[in-house]
User: What shape does this take?
Amino acid sequence: MSHWIIVPVILPAILGGLMVMALRHDLVLQRVFALACGGTLWAVASALLWAATTGAPEVYHLGNWPAPFGIVLMLDRLSALMVWITATLALILQLYAIGTGWDRKGRHFHALWQFQLMGICGAFLTADAFNLFVFFEVLLIASYGLMIHGGGAERVRAGVQYIAFNLVGSALFLFALATIYSVTGTLNMADLAVKMQTLPEGSSALMRVAAVLLFLVFAIKGALVPLQFWLPGTYANAPGVVAALFAVMTKVGAYAVLRFGTLVFPQSLAATGSMVADLLLPAALVTLILGALGVLGATSLPRLVAFAAIASMGTLFTSMAAFTPASSAATLYYLLHSTFATALMFVVADMIGARRAQARLSEVSPPLAQAGLIAALYFAGAVALAGMPPLSGFLGKLLVLQAQRGAANLVWPVILITSLILILGFVRAGSMIFWKAHEGGAKAGDHAPEALAFVSAFLLLAVLVSLTVLAGPVTVWAEATAAYLHDPAAYIAANQLYEAP
Assistant: This one.
């Protein structure tokens, strides 16, 4: 299985280059190759997930150079899960892009899509902090192009803001890596985990600075307060299918916090202690509150979903902040749920936007074409994101609350109150879109059914239903993964670190 580890990185990289060089004038061939690549990537990701679940962590040495000198990729339960989420979401959304014609509205859509997948999968698989930075930049460069796909002044303006925030994050990332390397002489994550345990006392202050810098970088990627300002405008103005894919991109920041928080900067580490957790929890709670209030006061449906995405990240980081096996297991389940639920709502928002004459929620439009199906999808997505029963959002929040049981903090009241606010926000928007549209007696607008678009939306809903039905086995898997993360001996041993004679 070891050589298959690199496939999620090189397959989209090769296909993206092929599309730019040879297929850029043939949209049909681009679609065929994109779907073939998406299906292959999903099959490989599923096989990797099975291998990581049933076997020990595996390492792939590029050029056969051992760590920490060579570039290594690492397959374990967490990285395999994240790659599978990415592959599944990307394949479903490719169907949506083709069905709605979003891929016809600008050049190189499919090539940029492949490079985006390369960067995301590479970020999840790399076992080296510097190459995490490299893959961050790859996915960000591709996302810049996807963000402004289709053009428009508002989209370009939001894209410039998005670039500016992420350039700041990239600079901070480099400063953090330089600080870590100056102290430890390595950026391999497993090597760092070993060396941090024997860190000289005089270097503790520098490592605390590095930890805070990394936390700020990952907070930008994960849209954590006070660094979330880029997300509402970016996601609200991005093409709907791109915003839906970005639902997994914010999870790169959450993944990095979980990986570094359990491997490099664990709670037991004398140099940093519980510093990361102490910073993370209040920021996460404020993020959750801000996202919920944004949903209640949003003036358009894309902005409403963007703020709901911020609220879901707040819940995710709130769960993660305790850094216990129970909280990490809840985090993994909620991460699965929130990625697909957020993507579903962005897809639904795009379908509504294509059929609605008015962008603002306060302005009433005629009834939508295919209103029944879209209303059902909206209702299901709203139930999932707000955390209401019976879908997986309710179970995810229940796991988060259970993991925080007995803690003397505001987690329980904040999650419960913000859930109510989210419900009110979604109800308000739904009544404006679906109910008030019928009060004037106007005729429903005309719009082609777009069968592939509905197929992709219902596939996203099917994933959420599966997470609900299979909540028991998924939770057991998440608990085993969390136990593995909090005991990283297997991860460190698999890297086979080079030892000087």
Summary: The longest strand covers residues 58-61.
